[in-house]
Specification:
The chain has about 210 residues and is an alpha/beta fold. It is built from six helices and nine strands, in the order βαβαβαβαβαββαββ. A seven-stranded mixed β-sheet has the order 3-2-1-4-5-6-7, sandwiched between helices. Strands 8-9 form a two-stranded antiparallel ribbon. It starts with a strand and ends in a 7-residue tail after the last strand.
Length: about 210
């Protein structure tokens, strides 16, 4: 299945570029219908323009409430034919009402091995805590903060010579590989969300052979 994708951004958009590169190279079966930023004049918007992808700004500061802001976002996404959402450095928490418009179809990348170090500045949190292994996580988005079912993770060793910035850069490299790969697994129909009695849902990944 080809993912009709919307990408939400707030900053430089390096994960957006990784997604767009994977689409253009044929490694990701998706069409980027819209790049939406809640902040004007960010580099991610220039990346979208350079790739010939439609983009729009819905500035959260221009709305009196989160509900009004999310309604405006939803209108733009639906007008563009978006069916799946990828959060690529989008720095706003989405409400259950907004998520209900894309049930089980909102995916985020986070720069830690969740459930460790949710929220902002996860790389610095991990570095300051003194962990020996850090990494990144691609997960479905739920109403919590970085708490949805995990699709995939990539580990990054923390070296004795690392600074916090060194670690951030190496984690980001893994995000650029893992996020498009996880989206491709979704496009291939290999990702399944399985409810568990008395616990949160978990994700299982079918092998390529099982899909043939």
């Amino acid at each position: 299945m080809t993912l009709e994708l919307g990408v939400l951004v707030s900053g430089s958009g390096s994960n957006l570029e990784a997604i767009l590169t994977a689409i253009s190279s044929g490694r990701l079966d998706a069409r980027c219908r819209l790049v939406l930023s809640n902040r004007p004049s960010v580099l991610a918007l220039e990346r979208a323009r350079s790739a010939g992808v439609p983009s729009v700004v819905v500035d959260h500061k221009e709305y009196a409430s989160r509900e009004e802001f999310e309604r405006a976002m939803l209108a733009k996404l639906q007008e563009s034919g978006v069916e799946w959402l990828a959060l690529a450095g989008f720095m706003r928490v989405l409400s259950p009402t907004f998520l209900a418009a894309f049930p089980g179809r909102v995916v985020n990348v986070h720069p830690s091995l969740l459930p460790a170090f949710p929220g902002t500045s996860a790389q610095t949190q991990a570095f300051d805590y003194g962990v020996k292994v850090a990494g990144c996580t691609v997960h479905f988005v739920d109403a919590g903060v970085d708490s949805g079912p995990i699709i995939a993770q990539a580990a990054v060793p923390v070296l004795d010579t690392d600074s916090a910035e060194d670690l951030r850069r190496r984690i980001l490299e893994q995000e650029h590989a893992l996020f498009p790969q996880a989206l491709q697994w979704i496009a291939e129909g290999r990702v399944r969300m399985v409810p568990r009695a008395g616990a949160r849902s978990v994700v299982t990944l079918a092998s390529e052979d099982a899909e043939r």
